[in-house]
Each structure stands twice: as structure tokens, then as C-alpha cells.
Write a structure and sequence with these properties.
With 198 residues, the protein is an alpha+beta fold. A hairpin with a 4-residue loop joins β1 and β2. The mean pLDDT is 86. The chain folds into 3 domains: 47 residues, Helicase, Ruva Protein, domain 3, CATH 1.10.8; 91 residues, Tetrahydropterin Synthase, Chain A (2-Layer Sandwich); 41 residues, GTP Cyclohydrolase I, Chain A, domain 1 (Orthogonal Bundle). The strands form 2 sheets. It has a 3-stranded antiparallel sheet. The chain has a two-stranded antiparallel ribbon with strand order 3-4. The relative contact order is 0.16. α1 crosses α2 and α3 crosses α8.
């Protein structure tokens, strides 16, 4: 199949990748749009992994108020340069993250932020629940591990399905932005206030 400028343009509009990357993806996939998009996504994840070690000290703090001032979120998202911090794509990402935090009420940014004592308490609780349901101890261990994954999705920002597209985890949303923008992006911290809550 011939790789036309129109095909490259369609893939670029669909993925947000650069023209040359789109052309390379279409060549790799023999002109198949779905395969080309998948190739770009995988390549984006590889790029994000390479950039993860780079220091991110610039960025912005987004303040979001919802429900007539009854709910508020403040989130700090960092990037490598002030140039990127001013880009509309970066600002939109930060706003979407604040909206997600308001909606889904995560407790931690990443799994590594959860204290070891909380993880151990949850595992023991899940094992005890499984045993109380009549499961054998070795099966209860596996059930507890599965329930821990659900716990992470409920409490860890990066592990949650994104509020605007539940097929995408928040960490995938950020990795896609890293691949598109070309800089490391890190959610540093957030706080969520709801009127009347401690």
C-alpha cells in the first residue's frame, strides 16, 4: 500500500505524533492505520521510559474548584522546561489531572507512596476475608493479591482508569503526553478538599 500524505495526516491527527514518526509507523505497518497507531503507542512508552530519569523541576500548579465551591483540588505537575510548562497541551493535561482527582479521590500519587504498614494491613485483611469465605490459605493468598490490585486502582492516582477515558490508566495518559511533548512529566503531589470532610 502506498503511504500518501493524506494517510500520514490522518495518523498524525489521530495520535498527535510527528509527521516523520507517522510516516515511519505507516511504513513499518504496511499502511495499516491500527497497527501504525499501536506501533506509535509502544514507541511512545519506550520514549517515556527513557525520559523518566530526567529531572523535572518546572511545571505548574493547577487549582480546581467544583460543585459550587464544595470541592477543591490543588495538583503540582512538573516538566523539564518552562517552555513546555506554557504549552497548551501541558496545561490541558494538568487541568485533566485536577479534574480526575476531584472526581476519583485518590489517596496516593504512586504505589511506592503507600506506607508498608498500610499494604501489610490490607493484605492481611483481604486474606482473612477470603479465609472467612471458606477459601484455602494458598488460594486466599492469590485472592488477596487480586484484591490489592483493586485497592491500587481505588487509591493510587497513576493506577486509576482516567475519568475521561476508562480504557486508559492515568499513568498511560501521562506517558502519552511524554511521548508527544518530548519531556519527562511527573505528578509531584496533590491535595483534595471536600467541604465537611476531615
Amino acid at each position: 500500500m502506498a503511504i500518501t500524505a493524506e494517510l500520514i495526516k490522518q495518523l498524525r491527527e489521530q495520535t498527535g505524533a510527528g509527521m516523520m514518526e507517522c510516516k515511519k509507523a505507516l511504513e513499518q505497518s504496511g499502511g495499516d492505520m491500527a497497527k501504525a497507531a499501536e506501533w506509535l503507542r509502544e514507541r511512545g512508552l519506550a520514549i517515556a521510559a527513557k525520559k523518566a530519569s530526567r529531572e523535572a523541576r518546572e511545571g505548574m500548579i493547577e487549582v480546581y474548584s467544583h460543585a459550587g465551591g464544595r470541592l477543591g483540588v490543588m495538583v503540582e505537575v512538573n516538566c523539564e522546561t518552562d517552555f513546555v510548562a506554557r504549552m497548551p497541551e501541558f496545561r490541558e493535561l494538568v487541568h485533566d489531572l485536577a479534574l480526575h482527582i476531584a472526581s476519583n479521590a485518590p489517596t496516593y500519587v504512586r504505589k511506592e507512596d503507600i506506607p508498608e504498614t498500610v499494604i501489610n494491613e490490607q493484605m492481611e485483611r483481604f486474606k482473612a476475608e477470603a479465609i472467612a469465605e471458606g477459601k484455602k490459605p494458598e488460594i486466599a493468598e492469590r485472592i488477596a493479591a487480586g484484591r490489592m490490585e483493586k485497592f491500587y486502582q481505588d487509591h493510587v492516582l497513576l493506577e486509576q482508569p482516567f475519568v475521561k477515558d476508562d480504557k486508559l490508566k492515568v499513568k498511560d495518559l501521562i506517558n502519552n503526553a511524554i511521548a508527544k511533548i518530548g519531556e519527562n512529566i511527573v505528578v509531584r503531589r496533590f491535595v483534595r478538599y471536600q467541604l465537611g470532610e476531615e
